[in-house]
Amino acid sequence: MPSNSTSNSTDASDFDSDLRYDYIAKVILLGPSGCGKSCIMHRFVKGEWKVSSSQTIGVEFASKIVRVGSGSNLTRIKLQLWDTAGQERFRALTRSYYRGAAGVVLVYDTVNRSTFRQLAEFIQDVRSLTCPQVTMVACGNKADLIEEADRTWIVPPAEVRTFSQSNPDITVTTCSAKSGKGIEDLFDKVAAQLLTKIELGEIDPEDMNSGVQYGDVPRWDRSTKKSRKKDSKKGFSALSRFFANRAGEEEIKKDQQDKEESGGRSSSRKNSNTPLLRRPSTVEQEPIELDGRGADSRVDVAQQTKSGCCY
């Protein structure tokens, strides 16, 4: 019985640690109707294929924690996903959800060229309604149907390359919500780009309009965050900051050792029987007046006091 209780408490603590995160970021899914935005979100969050899917009206929500890095550099980012309606009649409604988004996933159908060309309208809305530092990733869904689809409907690779050259700030990838291929990689790209912008100071989690907020596991206190932000603006990387801090610690240790050694030398001098040499006084001495016998005419007051004389 004791072993079971111990294992249960350990599992509970592991479960609690898995739910904690460093940042929370708002990410919206955009794209024409029927491209599989809801299926992508369901596959990512639930890890399964959504067999029956109806058209989204308004917006649907889901969230999942993504881990970026490993070991001491591990950062947990909770992606708060907003699945918007792709139908034209809901576009005016969904535009109200653009504000405050830190990341955008632009979904198109790889076997439907028209959906890829419609992305230009969504991109225009994103650039006008979100912050300039927004992270955008374009993803071609239904990649599992490329081999069986009509070639005239497939999005040509040359057109995708042209799109990438015209929009260098947008990462392009492909996925399949049905098979799950490329789904994890899609959101890993989003989380990694968000973290990079946070560390470079392009996104300030303390800004309520940035789309990113601090989570329940602060990686540093407020003063450290400010210094890290200043270093990031100067172009310092996390690795350079590490070595700079390490050099500073070594400098402090060296100063402490020097102080201890100097303190030891001073204490040894105090305990020694050797008399300390005094510096000669720089104060000018009074001229000594000699009497007729050549003796000092000044009277030793201490000597007279001992003998009982009063001067």
From TrEMBL:
<feature type="compositionally biased region" description="Basic and acidic residues">
    <location>
        <begin position="247"/>
        <end position="263"/>
    </location>
</feature>
<feature type="region of interest" description="Disordered">
    <location>
        <begin position="247"/>
        <end position="311"/>
    </location>
</feature>
<dbReference type="GO" id="GO:0003924">
    <property type="term" value="F:GTPase activity"/>
</dbReference>
<dbReference type="Pfam" id="PF00071">
    <property type="entry name" value="Ras"/>
</dbReference>
<dbReference type="InterPro" id="IPR050209">
    <property type="entry name" value="Rab_GTPases_membrane_traffic"/>
</dbReference>
<feature type="compositionally biased region" description="Polar residues">
    <location>
        <begin position="302"/>
        <end position="311"/>
    </location>
</feature>
<feature type="region of interest" description="Disordered">
    <location>
        <begin position="205"/>
        <end position="233"/>
    </location>
</feature>
<keyword id="KW-0378">Hydrolase</keyword>
<feature type="compositionally biased region" description="Low complexity">
    <location>
        <begin position="264"/>
        <end position="273"/>
    </location>
</feature>
<dbReference type="InterPro" id="IPR027417">
    <property type="entry name" value="P-loop_NTPase"/>
</dbReference>
<protein>
    <submittedName>
        <fullName>P-loop containing nucleoside triphosphate hydrolase protein</fullName>
    </submittedName>
</protein>
<dbReference type="GO" id="GO:0005525">
    <property type="term" value="F:GTP binding"/>
</dbReference>
<feature type="compositionally biased region" description="Basic and acidic residues">
    <location>
        <begin position="290"/>
        <end position="299"/>
    </location>
</feature>
<dbReference type="InterPro" id="IPR005225">
    <property type="entry name" value="Small_GTP-bd"/>
</dbReference>
<comment type="similarity">
    <text>Belongs to the small GTPase superfamily. Rab family.</text>
</comment>
<dbReference type="InterPro" id="IPR001806">
    <property type="entry name" value="Small_GTPase"/>
</dbReference>
